[in-house]
Amino acid sequence: MAVLELPDWMALAPALILAGTALVLFLIDSIEPHSTNRTLLSGTAVAGSLSSLAVAVWFTVAGVGAKGIENYGVIDIMNGQFVVDQLALYFMIIIAVVTALVTVASYDYLQDHTYQAEYYSLVVLAATGMSMIAASNSLVTIFIALELTSLPSYALVAILKDNRGSVEAGLKYFLIGALSSAIFVYGVSLVYGATGSLQLTRIAAVLESGDAAVGDMGGLLGLGILMLIGGIAFKTASVPFHFWAPEAYEGAPAPISAFLSSASKAAGFVLAFRVFTTAFPLEATTGIIGVDWTLVFAILAIVTMTLGNFAAATQENVKRMLAYSSIGHAGYVLIGLAALSADGGDLVMGAAMMHLLVYGFMNTGAFLFVGLAEHWGVGRTFEDYNGLAERAPFACGAMAVFMFSLAGVPPFSGFWSKYLLYTELINAAADNTVLLVLAAALVINSALSLYYYSRLVKSLWIEEPLLDRDRLAQPTGLYAAIIAAAVMTVVLLPAFGPVADAALEAAAAVVA
Amino acid sequence: MMIEALIAVALIGALVTFIAPNRIAGKLAFAISLVPVALSLWLFAAFDGSGNALLDGELAFESQAAWLEIGDHSVSWFVGLDGISLPLVVLTTILCTVAIVSSWTPIDDRESQFYGLILFIEANLIGVFSALDFFLWFVFWEAVLIPMYLLIGIWGGPRRKYAAIKFFVYTNVASLVMFGSFIALVFGLGDSVTSFALPEIATAMRNGGLDGLFGLSGPTLASVVFIGMFLGFAVKVPIVPFHTWLPDAHVEAPTPASVLLAGVLLKMGTYALLRFNFTMFPEQVEVYAIPIAAIAVISVIYGAMLALAQTDLKRIVAYSSVSSMGYVILGLVAYTTFGVGGATFQMVSHGLISGLMFMAVGVIYNATHTRMVTDMSGMADRMPIAVGILIAGAFGYMGLPLMSGFYGEFTIFFGTFGSELLSYSPLFTSLAMFGIVIVAGYLLFALQRTVFGPYRLETDYEVGRAPVHDVASMGVLLGLIILLGVAPDLIFDMITDAIDPIIGGGL
């Protein structure tokens, strides 16, 4: 690692900082277990995630792990168990951003809550796991990082112990999570059985070697890959393991819903991007199992986005609407994997990554607004949100920004990511009917999504309030996080160049 | 940097107005909006461009900066003006100021948000007319929707929610169709374009650089894209049968939003048709000339007939816009200097006249709280000056010589009649001219019922004279209408200069 001549393992600093922060939080709690200093706790978590963010941005700008620069190159740690490249750093940035927003917002949300220290340390531990997923390069490290993410998440969903919904959501999330972990790890074992290796680059080497013994294992390998896809579908809330998402997001505290639907989803996608581009080279794998795995992703993408959008359109509960919309967006991002077989597939994947970053701001912000509404105690349905803009124009303005940005309407950055995804998809679809169908599905779903996003804007801004309200409180943390997310959603429109460059480099790091 | 300054003043002004107290928002927004007016008039005076912006013309106030690099294509901030866009920019700034003044009386709720949104629209409208990069243009194009949606939805009439959603969904779906078509076009051009800059794409198109895509041959792809983009813009214009959002939006919108909607937003559609379809696809224009002309004539006649059947003053003016936009399409498809030039002139002229008409209806409504022709009579008695201006505007609409409407329509008919590209052009022209008779019919009918005769509106409040600020801004519009009618060469010269490269000179 050429920056300041540091040892190689320091390249994992963004994840290590998060791990350290979690330990500090435990330490703070063990010093005074019975008193809660929420400023200190929240402040520590925010400081940790912001430092992680700063280091990840610095590394990206400095070219750590960048291909093709002298003295640099992809950093290989522990004999290829971990790698730090532009892809890893890009997703570490997304995860740190979401963690920072969520921990800032939790300051108010957790007021009077008993288990604050536990809450913050679990959030930061889960974020550590997500960061490690981004850098994991072997099926074992991936699985461990995945569990490090999942276990705290189960506890976080159920952390409102006195709230039936929260506990129920936690149990559902845990049961489906455990099932999908089992499926995933079974898939890992099948892949290991077929190729004799767990490290991603070595799996690829074995597949490409043309070894007859591997060639006969096509069925086994295919089943293994299918099961890995199952695990990924759970983490990204995609069909067929999506049905936990509305339940878990609805029952969980809103900042946790924001955290899971943005950061956890991003982590699931970086896992998918890395495993499928590195371990299963398209030609060799298709030669062995006889099926092009991008097809699976194409089908999943269409089904996921359509199901997410149609379900979102019929919801009365705002949080559930956002949950289904987040399933829809998972469908959009899956296109990044579905298009890999075509020329220009790396650009589509880059555009999908851009979408994840922008999504990290706008979706987190939207869920945090729901958190703010819960803090105000206004209720959960669209009708309950009627006319809030008269009392809280700034927060509602921010929410309108998130909604239009999620719908992909300019002048917000969601426009760039969605339209660039579409543009590059058309480019790649030049002679590929499947991708053309995907592009059509993307357009139809985008048009449809406008309905339920604008419906929320209509509730907030246009409808008359159901009951007279006094001035609504303006909790500092929640407001700061929401406004910051909204400002970034707007600012990234003119300043989209660096995001696009970073995402395209991240995609180029794994797609040859 | 002048265009950037223009947009920045409106944007910053919008932000300032948003956070200003409601009490002063109206006056503040008016003061701010005078800066773009002055700037755009200065641009008009200092204009030194020539030729067409998309076809190797000399751009005025050009500036370009890199934005994104996506694969083999770059996106840039690229703005500049030519003889087509400059008059529309001036129209935009003037109408926005007029719209702000016209809101002083009717808007009494959440003022700072209202005026902020108007200034925000202004910034985006200027962007639409000056952007020369497709993505930049599309950002401005779409960004107009949100503030207009909110203006109709929050401050509109009784059915405002329905009208706002309808407006938003119609135009946004149309934009998606148009966007998809255009992207296919860019990739169909292959290596001959390296950016989304409109001049580069237009030049490549006219050099026949279009290869096939999706298994379609070049000409087929061109036809598909042409039709896709035409449909996309047709909703915005609007052309029959995509016009149904317009009367709803207009009737429910508050007066200032109607002024902007009819005055400028409709011109976005015809401007885009001229910039994209009629500049980039000369061959397809020839192929589809007859169906387009037929739709245009149907829009003229059908729109006018619909207007004839209305009893709501605002609906009359709204439907007559459908009719007027039909003339613009007819002029475009004639593809002669006078046809396309007249169409562009008509965009400006109709912007001023319909802005004036909507304002007048708004002023009457503010005083009487009704817009029904059947309710009113003898308004000239109570508000002589305002009604005088309304009558003058109506005659402008009917095409009275020495007013801008006459010159716009006359040049369109003149250009269309002699069109070589459009077969049966004399037939289409004569059919469209019949529309003028109907326009005169419904306007005279409405005026006769509402304005003249004895005053007999029964109200429990005093119906007095129109406020001075409303009359003054209507007077300004009327002055401009007459100015352009007397001296059309003020803008017609620069328009034809920008149009000649598209059609290669001629009539």
UniProtKB/TrEMBL annotation, chain A:
GO terms for biological process: ATP synthesis coupled electron transport. InterPro entries: NADH-Q_OxRdtase_suN/2 (IPR010096), ND/Mrp_TM (IPR001750). It is found in: Membrane. GO terms for molecular function: NADH dehydrogenase (ubiquinone) activity. Keywords: Membrane, Transmembrane, Transmembrane helix. The chain crosses the membrane at residues 6-28, 40-61, 87-107, 119-136, 142-161, 173-192, 212-234, 255-276, 288-310, 322-342, 348-373, 394-413, 433-453, 477-496. Residues 136-440 form the NADH:quinone oxidoreductase/Mrp antiporter transmembrane domain. The keyword Transmembrane applies. The keyword Zinc-finger does not apply. It is a multi-pass membrane protein. HAMAP family: NDH1_NuoN_1. This is NADH-quinone oxidoreductase subunit 2. It comes from Natrinema gari JCM 14663.
UniProtKB/TrEMBL annotation, chain B:
NCBIfam families: NDH_I_M. GO terms for cellular component: membrane. It is a multi-pass membrane protein. GO terms for biological process: ATP synthesis coupled electron transport; electron transport coupled proton transport. The keyword DNA-binding does not apply. Belongs to the complex I subunit 4 family. It is found in: Membrane. Keywords: Membrane, Transmembrane, Transmembrane helix. Its main location: membrane. This is Proton-translocating NADH-quinone oxidoreductase, chain M. It holds the Pfam family Proton_antipo_M. The keyword Transmembrane applies. The chain crosses the membrane at residues 6-21, 28-47, 84-102, 114-132, 138-155, 167-189, 213-235, 256-276, 288-309, 316-335, 347-365, 385-407, 427-447, 468-487.
